[in-house]
Every structure is written in structure tokens, then in C-alpha cells.
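Hi Q.,

Before the meeting this afternoon, I wanted you to have the iron/sulfur cluster prediction in hand. No need to reply - just skim if you have a minute. The sequence and ligand are here:
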Amino acid sequence: MPLLTKSQKRTTISALRSSDVRAVDQKYNEPARLWCNEEWVTAGCLRCTDPRCMKFIDAEINCRHSPDFSYERDLNVCPVGAIKWNFDKELPEIDNHSCIGCGLCAARCPIGAIYRSGNHMEIAEPSSDYTDIPINHVNLEAHKMFIRELDKIHWNHQFQKETDGIMERIYQDISQFDGRSMVPNILVRNLIIALNHECAKSRTGDVYTRMDAVYSSNLKPTCKGVVEIEFGRDTLEASRGILDDIAVMHSRNNLDKNDNAALVVCLSFPNKRQGYFQVIKDINRVLGLKIQTISLGALLLLVWNGAQVNFLSREFYVDFDNLSIRGITEFRLNRRINLSDGKLGILEPEK
Ligand code: SF4
Ligand code: SF4
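Predicted structure with the ligand bound:
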């Protein structure tokens, strides 16, 4: 069934006159271009009936390796509800007053129709190379097949270039959500999914589930682990909490501690004096467990650049002796990162 509840009001979907797309190319701050019938055409919205820019399917917010995990059923891609379907225009629409610029909707669009323009996000309308066709069984099937064909094309899905200013704005917007809001945890869940993983966030209000989330990679070799999300100042608590999570998964959920690629997601890297990285180092030295730490900003950078990440190799392990993920993040982006040293504690602790 289409995910749009008012789909009866929808009359059309958009299709290329020929679906013979050979390549897709997206540059920062522009919609993608499609190589189609020997020319480049600008991507526009396809008026999908199951708009991925707006909704996940249940299999994405659930985790196959943890079938008993009590997970949050929120299927919304946008953590702040800023993207909605406009039934008059038959297109999704972004409310840029509430949009925080995380780029999740853009990362999900199979044709690269969503992009950042200046300070806000835009959705490119169906291009003149498209034709609107009525929704019926045959057209819908052809439309879905076209999207499946697009999924097979390997393309650089880079849609948002970082600057200190963009990150400052996003961090400012996020800091308005306090510890009781589920926005930060939903945001992290959705970013991990955008990195080609399944991720299940614990159900809101469930006081019996210890960990914030569990994930497993869709890439080969498969990787799985627990996630602690700490956007406040209490990162020391996160290093202790994740040990509990690993123990619970090992003893009760059949995930061996050595196979658990555990992840702490923080807003900003704590500095050396706060003790977090010393505890992470101690855990590795005494128990042989490499707990990885990644910031919200680093997750955003990876998603905005369509990076492939596999946490299996523990490449985001940092401790007291090495406090930077700049090198590994640049390696994954295959370029230098345009953020000042220590900026918001995204790639290394703030100065
Ligand atoms: S923006 Fe992309 S995912 Fe969303 S409806 Fe349009 S084509 Fe589909
Ligand atoms: S960029 Fe993020 S906050 Fe803005 S509409 Fe898209 S998903 Fe929502």
C-alpha cells in the first residue's frame, strides 16, 4: 500500500519520457543531472506514491539481528516534521522555518531532486523532460521499476558542502531540543539508516530497554552493534552505559561482545579533562573492546557526501592518545573537510 494516507487525492506521478537513464551526477547545492537519451537533463521530483524523502518502511527502522528489540515505530524521515506532502501541487514541500538542514530527505531521494540552496533546502519540481501520467496499476509498476533501476546506478550523492556557518546553524537548532525530546535520537537513528544500515531506536517511554539503539549494516561484511546517544554534557555516563549495553547484548541477546561494533554518538567530542576518552582507553586496555565515538556533525558529513562506512573495522575508535576522527572522515569523503580545527567538537575536541 502507498504510504501516503490521502493517496486517493493524488492523481499523477511523473515519469521521464524515456526511462533510459545511464548516469546520475549531483554537485553541491544543485539538483542532480541525469544522462538520458544522449543529453543531460536536470532531475526533478517524480511525485512518488511512496516518497522515500518522507517515509521509511518498517524493515529500515527495525533490526533483523535483534528481532526482540522493542523499537520506535516512527516512520518519518524528517526528525522535525518539516517535509510534508502538498496535495494541491502533488509534490512534497519543505517548511524551511522548521527545517534544521540535516539533509536526510535529500539523501533519501532516489533521483537527487532535493538540494541545499543558500540557507535552505529546495525540491526541484518535475522537469520539462518529464511527463505527468495518471496513477494506475500499470503506470505505478513502471514507476517503481524505474526507481529500482535508478538504485542500481552508482552515483556520487553529494548534495551539501559543509562550512563552519552551516554547522553552527544546525548545532544551534539542535540545541533547542532538550533531553526529553526524542528529536536527537530519531535524528541519529535516521542518519545511521542513511548510511546504509538498519537501525532500531528504543521505543519512546520504554523504561526496560537499556540501550538507545541497535544497528546492523547492509554492507558486506555485516556489522552490528549497540548505540548510545549523548547530546548533553554527560559523555562519561555514555562510556559507562555502553558497557552495560554490550553486556546485556552478550548475555541475553546472543551478540558476542567481540562482534559488537558499539558506537557512542555525541553532539561534540568531550575534551581530555572530562575523563571520557580515558575511560574508553581503559575499556580497550582491560577488556579489549574498541568502542567507537562519532559526533552528530561527522554523521552529517558522511551522509551529505554519500560516503560508505562500515563500523566493523572500528575505524572510528579514538581514545585519550588520539582524539581526532578528522583523518578517517576525510578518508571516507576522499577530500579535505572544510571545518576549522576543533569546530563545535565535530572532528576533534573544541579548543
Ligand atoms: S523528492 Fe524525491 S523521493 Fe520525494 S517524492 Fe520527489 S522524487 Fe520521490
Ligand atoms: S533537511 Fe532535514 S530537517 Fe530539513 S526537511 Fe529535510 S529531513 Fe527535514
